[in-house]
Structure formats: C-alpha cells, structure tokens
Amino acid sequence: MKANHTYSEDDIGFNVPALPGMRADDIQTPCLIIDLDQFEFNLQKMVKELKSYNVTLRPHAKMHKSVDVALKQLALEGTKGICCQKVSEAEVFSRAGISDILITNQVCDELKISRLSGIAASGCRVTVCIDNLSNISALAEGASKKNTQIHCLVELDCGAGRCGVAGPEELLELAKAIDATDSLIFDGLQAYQGGIQHEKSYEQRDEVMQGVIEQVKACLVSLETAGISCRVVSGGGTGTFLIEAASGVYTELQCGSYAFMDADYGRVKNKVGQRLDRAEWKNALFLLTSIMSTARDGRAVCDAGLKVQSVDSGLPIIFGYDDVTYINCSDEHGVIQDLKNKLEINEKLRLIPGHCDPTCNLHDWYVCVRGGKVEHIWPVSARGKAW
Amino acid sequence: MKANHTYSEDDIGFNVPALPGMRADDIQTPCLIIDLDQFEFNLQKMVKELKSYNVTLRPHAKMHKSVDVALKQLALEGTKGICCQKVSEAEVFSRAGISDILITNQVCDELKISRLSGIAASGCRVTVCIDNLSNISALAEGASKKNTQIHCLVELDCGAGRCGVAGPEELLELAKAIDATDSLIFDGLQAYQGGIQHEKSYEQRDEVMQGVIEQVKACLVSLETAGISCRVVSGGGTGTFLIEAASGVYTELQCGSYAFMDADYGRVKNKVGQRLDRAEWKNALFLLTSIMSTARDGRAVCDAGLKVQSVDSGLPIIFGYDDVTYINCSDEHGVIQDLKNKLEINEKLRLIPGHCDPTCNLHDWYVCVRGGKVEHIWPVSARGKAW
Questions:
Q1: With an 8 Å Cβ cutoff, are B296 and A386 in contact?
Q2: Which of B260, B308, B307 shows the shortest CA–CA distance to B61?
Q3: Chain B partners within 8 Å of A31 (Cβ)
C-alpha cells in the first residue's frame, strides 16, 4: 500500500479533494482532474482550426459549467461570448462578468423569463431560442418590465427531433412576431444538429450536415425574400464543426466537448478514419479513481461508480492501460477486469468518462494538474444549475 | 400558458427552486420533490414490517444523502444508526449529530482512514467494512493515532461480485487479525447481496437469498468454532429485507430505497406478483419537470434530462398518466410521446426517476410538498460527497 502524503488531513478541507501545490499522487479520489497541457492544446487547436473561416466561436459552457474554463476560452482570438442552457447557469456566468450569453434553449416560465430579463438588464447581451408563438409575448413582456431587450434566435429542428420549428413557414411567422415587439430583437437562427455529433462515421455526419445546410439556406432565402435581416446562424458541435465552418452560412459555432473530450468522442472518427481523441484532440478530462478491493481473483474494485460519472454513453475507458478494463458500474463502485491481478489497493487510475457533460455536472471541483503537481482547483461553478 | 405566481423572483434565491409556503404549482423546475404523506407512509410501514422480527433498522443514507431524512428515520422505533458509503458522507451526518454510522464499504487510503478515525474520536460510533488484510494494519494505526477505536465488519461477497471475501477461511483470517489489534473491534459480518435487490421475481430473489443465508450460517459456525464472537450480521435492501429479517441470522438491515421508491423498484414484484411501488410502498420522490416545447406533432419536450436524473436503470415514468410516455433523454431535455398533443407549454409533470440513489445525488434540494403547498426545503446534505 503506497501512502506517503506530503500534507496533513487538515490541509484538505471537508469539501475539497486536493489543494494547489500538492503532489498529483496525493489527490483524494474519486474526483475530476484536468490535465492542463492537454486542455490548453485543445483550446489552442480549436481557434487555429477556425482561423481560416469566417465564423466566431461561442463555446458551450453547459459542458464544463466552469467560469475558469470559460474565461480561458474567451481569452483566445475568434471567440465571442458563451452558450448556456439554463437561466440559472447563465446567472452564474453573467455574475462572473461574462457579458455575452446565448441560451441555446427555450425559456417559457414566467419567473425564468423575469430572471433572464434581469441578466439582460444588468448589462449582459442575452440571446434566447424560440420555437413557440406564445413564448414571444411572454418574453417581450418580461424584457419590457425590466426595461431591457433580449435577442432572439428561432430554433430550427434540423433532425435532432427535440425543440425547434420545422421550416421556413413557421420561422417567418416567429421572426415577424419577434420583430413586431419593442423588447425583442430577431437575430437569426439556431440550427444545431445534436443527434449527429456522436455519429461514428465522418461520411455519415457530413451527409446529414449537408442536408441541414440546405435546410438553413432555404430559411435564409425565405427571410431575405420577406425582407427580414438574419445576422446570426448558430450551431455546430465538436463532431461536425468544420462542416458548419465551411458551409458559408453558419456565423458562430457552439462547440463544447473539444476542450475535454470523452470516451464517446474517442469512438468518433475523423475524415481519414482516426479517433477524434487521439488524432485531433487530447483527453484532458479524467475521473481519478483508487483501487479499494482486490479480494476476487482477476478483478479489482475502484471507488468510481454512478455517483461520479454518467454512463448514458457507455462505460469509462481506463487511460494508459490495455490489459485492464472497467466492466461494471454500480452506485459507488467500478468493477475492473484485471486478469493478471496487477492492480493494488490504493493504486490510482485515470478514467476517461463515457460522456463529459453530465459527468462534470456531478462534481464540485476540477483538480487541475501539470507535471505531477496540482496547479489549480477550479470550482464547477454552475454545477446543479438546472432551472 | 399558465402563469399566476404568488411571489416575486426575489423570493426564490439563485440557489433554491422553491420556498416553504409557496404553492406547489409555482415550484421552479426541474427539481426533486418529496410527497410528504407518501414518504411518511413508507417510513412507518418499514418499522411496522420489522416489528415482529429480532432485527434493527440501519437505513442507508447513501440513497437520500439528507440529514433531515435520516433524522426522520432515526426517530422511529427499532431504528439504530445509519449506513453511509463514503467517509465524506459520514462526516456530514456525524457533524449533524448522528452518533452511530456504519460505512458499508472499504476505506483504504491513509488520509481517508485518518478522517474516519477523526469521526470516531469525535464520539460517533464508527463501523467500517474490511476485505483485505493489509487494510487492517492501516486502519488500526489510523485509529490508534487518534486514540480511538473503530468497529469492523468483514465483508462477505455473497454473489454481488464486488468487494468481500469468498468464505469462512478468509473471514477467520481477517477476524483474528482485527481482534489482534488494540484499536479495532471485530463486530461481525456484512453480507449484502446488492445484485439481487432489483431482480423482478420474488421467487428468484428468495432463492438467491436462501443461498446467501446458508453462506452466512457457515461463516457463523466457523467463527463460533474458533471462539470468536459475532454480534452483527448486517445486510438487506428494499427488494429482499423480509427474507433477511426472517432468516434468524441477520441482526440489522440496511434498506434505503423504501423511503422514496423509484421506477426500477416499480418493476420489482412482491410475493403475489404485485408491483412493489403500488402494493407495498408509495412513490414519494418525483422529478418535477415542465413542458418547454410542443413544436412537433405528437411530441412534447420537457426540461428534465441527464443532468437531473440517472438513466442507468431505465427512463423515468410519468406519474398519473397512461397516454404520455417519456421516450428519450438527452443532456438537458426529455422527449415525451404525446400522441394526442395534450401537453401544454409550462405544464408540469411528476416523473418517477428510474433510479433514486444517483438521481438524488444530482440535486441540492428536496422540495417537500403536502396538500398542494411547499412545507419544507431540505438540503441534499451530502450531495457530491464521494470521497
């Protein structure tokens, strides 16, 4: 049993798995760690990739829910504003001084609208998505009461089968209704194809996105014909962003996962059939876990179960090993197949989470490591902000 | 669009989905609600069920992670102490004054052992599970350094295939090693069959548990033969607890889910083939959600996705409806099949979560309702306490 801590237990608070300056070996598990070198590589790579296209990057903060991560993203060229998914999430980021937020979602409840208007009234540029006529009057009234204006994108259902209008006819109706209010400003379209981001084959993603781009073009023509100006077409994710960037119609991209990567994106292939998380991006986010039982032959049990990761997109991958496999996840435990019985009690492993967004939302802290040391502890600032 | 709030947005804080005294209709979604009448029914029923057996109830707090819920459970006769799964969780409950805690898990890391010993040194009776010889010296040293004692159960792997020793031989070795220390006290066995709790058929659960009971009896004989006293056999869950209670060998039960129920337990049948959540228990926990888009014919989209529920055990069930079905869950949305297009924007639905434990761990608050009013707001005190 390895145990050679360089601190006393009083150093690590009740609520914190590590402290800056600590050795990475001493981090309390289970917790999320960010490998800062890999994270910075991903951030830099994205803005380099987008440099030759006429699009801005508006990273999606629903993925990381961290003010610190958002500020690192916003510091890079070509990046303007962030995306959020919920009003309470947007409140966290606007209170931290971020002054341009797109809610990539519908906000319908009266109190939520009032709070959203409050963010706009505080000086933050707020944009929200709309797919329902009755929502327009509610939003207009809310903004008007706070003496402010809210920017609006009409959401287009481009095949994800969730929210959004079907096509130009409904789009025009909503755009006109938005333009007819004093407190709402029609900016354009949201056309995000969420369902296709994790499609493994590049050809399949490209084919679907070409259809979406045609759908967007038809919308732009119908808006132009009606004399309605469309300044924004927003969408795109880590799986498809270069297709949107090259389309000539998208003006901003909402990528999120590129900053961290996850096991599911590791199964997605690039144009030449290579894994996105090796050939294009780096795994920057890990769930650090410790072995806590080796009682059974050929098996080890670790301390990372369902309460520290979401398995909706599959089980985690153990980073850096090819002979041990995470095979079963229960509330508090992970069972690892370890046929050579090589894993020892208290040994630490880095897991690549199956799906980064809902996994990050389970944690209070990112422990940021570089060169075997803890460099920062970043709060998951908007964790649990679901309403 | 229904909207007739009885409060201003200033009443509901940035962090709270509701306030005591509010109408249940005005609760901000998505959030967890506890139906207090149903919750109290479940708590009362459990102690009534156990009255005729010679067992105590030690409810598992890993399910609800709430000091308020634990105190309600401990106030009832036949209940003694609680179970926790992690040291940080136990710290929350011991700081709240709960003075008898069993960690139903291995604690191996040096710092975790030191903190565990700290809880014991503060006057709380602490018990922990052991399945590894090297862990005994580490625990003994930790307790000794804090000048305290820790009670120990040897964990038996009774088929769940996770932690635990295989049988009497290893058990005896560990029991003797525990007894040989000054700071550890061998109390007995943990024999929890987690894998069988959600088996749908009562006969199948009974058959497996009879095998486990035989396994426990063999362990008790071998301890007795060796002259080692075994005061505790701990185990049992909501799916099997009456079998353990009637066994004559279990002394305490670790049930958790009975207090809240979930959709997965709704698929588990009692002795006469009835659903556990209707014939035996009541659904007391709900994920309250609002409809936020009805743009597609035959579909509605609600605001409860993967970030407010765990779908590891299946999708949630919509309570009180038989003609609308939750059919798809993404990060922030749920897609509901609504062939009659009956659901309206802002309409609220109660979802029965697929799996209560990891769902509760996603939330900061329980909004407790009775008679259409919010009666309490209980913090999910140990949410995120995973280390």
A1: no
A2: B260
A3: 386-387
